[in-house]
Structures are given as structure tokens and as C-alpha cells.
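Q: Hi! First time doing this. I have a protein sequence and I read that you can turn it into a structure. Is that right? Here it is:
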Amino acid sequence: MIFDNKKITATITRVAIFGSLSIILYMIPGLQFSLPFAPAFLKIHLDEIPILISGFSFGPTTAILILIIKSLFKLITDIPVNFGVGVLADFLYGLALVVPAALIYRKKSTFSGLLLGLFVGLVFNLYMSCSFGLYTIFPIYGFIYGNETIVSMFQVFNKNISSITDYRISLFFLLPFNLIKDGIVLIATIIIYKPMKIFLKSWQE
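A: Yes, that's right. Below is the predicted 3D structure, encoded as C-alpha cells:
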């Protein structure tokens, strides 16, 4: 098998640059914040913006590599807190958003293709966070911290929440939270990517 050293070097450089940008956005104080209607552990973060831009510019493989790098970095602080469950959730939700968007845009590299890709990615992301998250990730959190602890965090806002897999958690918390979070990320991506497209095009294979 013949390896193209130039392509490998370009990919490593892209992953390093956009991965660093993603990590910086994750670390900057003030760029992670909670919303007043949801528990504090649900935080808005903007580190998916560089990953989406890299996916549109260089394809889903580069975006996935950056997601992996970012997740490995997050493990440093996440393992002592929840044994990496938060990183796993963030990685899966990121995949659901970025990969469909990048694949669609690769097939249809127009502004309408960009919007379609982001919309499909949004739908996949909402499904993962509101369904898979509720019935898979949350029970793992419950195992670590205790179901009552997690439920009580939501009961502060809605006393009708009765269990860690109560559908009202998705309906009244996860869905609106992720709509706002994804909305901020997607709008910022559209605004930033358009003027950067010409520059990034010169860096493509």
C-alpha cells in the first residue's frame, strides 16, 4: 500500500489546527454556560463550530478525527468527575450533528446543501440527545450518582418528574436546551464559514 505523505501531513495539520480551536473554545471561561430553565450540568458550549467547519471544508473523516482529539482532551477532566460518561455523550452527539452535515455538503457543495446538511445533522443530534441520551446516558449517570440525585435536579424546575427516564425530561429540558445550543452553533457556523470558504478552499486537496 502506497501512502501519500503530502495528504497525511495535510490531514494532521488540519486536525491539529481545528482540534486546537475546538479545545480553546471549550476552555475559554464564559463560553460554557447554563440556561435558567435547566439543571446546571446542561451547558451550552461552542467547541463544535470548528469541527463543523472542518467537516464542510475537508470531509467527515477529518471532522471525526478532530472529535476524537477533543474527546481525549476532555477525558482529562471528565474521568475524575463521571468516569468519562459526559465525554461519551458529547462524542456521540457530536457525531450525530457533524457527520450527516459533512456528508450531505460533500455531495451538494452549495449554500442550500450547507443548510440541508445542518438541518439533517440537527435532527440526528436532537434524536440522539433526547432519546438515546434519556434512555442510555441518563441511566448511567443514575448508576454513578444515584437516580434520586439526578431526578431531584430536574424536580427543582418541574415537580412532576418522577424518574430518570421520565419523558418530560426530554420534552421540557433536553429538547429546548439542545435546540438553543444547536441553534447558536449552527448560526455561528454559517456566519463564520461563508467568508472563510475561499481561504479554506485553497487548502483543500
